[in-house]
Write a structure and sequence with these properties.
Elements: E1 2-7, E2 17-23, E3 30-31, E4 36-41, E5 46-50, E6 55-60, E7 67-69, E8 73-79, H1 123-133
Antiparallel strand pairs: 1-8, 2-4, 2-7, 3-6, 4-5, 6-8
C-alpha cells in the first residue's frame, strides 16, 4: 500500500493561494478516481478539486476557511498501488522513449516569394508626371472669341 498526496493545483493565472471553501471527505472515507474531494475559493472563482487516486483518505489539510498555497498538500490517500513510482508518493512522469526530432537549420534566410510592390516615387513627383501627360491644346485650334485681337471694321 502506498500513500499518495493530492496537492492544491494552480487554479488560475497569477493565483498564489486559495481558501478552502468546502471539504467533502474526512479521514477514513473511501474515494474513487474523479470523485470531488474539496472546493477552493480564490478572489476570481470557486473551483472543485477531484481525486486523482482511488483509496482511503488518511489526512486532510486544514478546515473550511483555511488558506493554502498553490502546490501545498491538500490531502493524502492510501492506495493499493505499490510505492515504486517515486520517493515522495507522487507518480513519476512518463518518459518519452524517442528523442524529439531536431528542426532543420538553414544557413541563410530566404526572401518571401511575393514581396510587396516597391514605391517608385513620392506623391509630389507622381502628380508632376501626371500633369505632363495631360495634352495641351495644339497650335491649330481656333482661339475662343474674346473681343481682343479681332480686326475692327472701320
Amino acid at each position: 500500500m502506498a500513500t499518495r498526496t493530492i496537492k492544491l493545483p494552480d487554479v488560475g493565472e497569477g493565483v498564489t493561494e486559495a481558501e478552502l471553501a468546502e471539504i467533502q471527505v474526512k479521514p477514513g472515507d473511501h474515494v474513487r478516481e474523479d470523485d470531488p474531494v474539496a472546493a477552493v475559493m480564490t478572489d476570481k472563482a470557486t473551483v472543485e478539486i477531484t481525486s486523482v487516486y482511488s483509496g482511503k483518505v488518511v489526512w486532510v489539510a486544514g478546515e473550511v476557511g483555511d488558506t493554502l498555497a498553490v502546490g501545498a498538500p491538500l490531502l493524502k490517500i492510501e492506495t493499493d498501488q505499490p510505492e515504486a513510482d517515486s520517493a515522495d508518493g507522487d507518480p513519476a512522469p512518463e518518459a518519452d522513449t524517442q528523442a524529439p526530432a531536431a528542426a532543420p537549420t538553414r544557413s541563410r534566410q530566404r526572401r518571401p516569394r511575393n514581396p510587396p510592390p516597391r514605391r517608385r516615387h513620392g506623391p509630389r513627383r507622381q502628380a508632376a508626371r501626371l500633369r505632363r501627360r495631360v495634352p495641351k491644346a495644339p497650335p491649330f485650334w481656333p482661339r475662343p472669341p474674346s473681343g481682343r485681337g479681332h480686326a475692327r471694321a472701320g
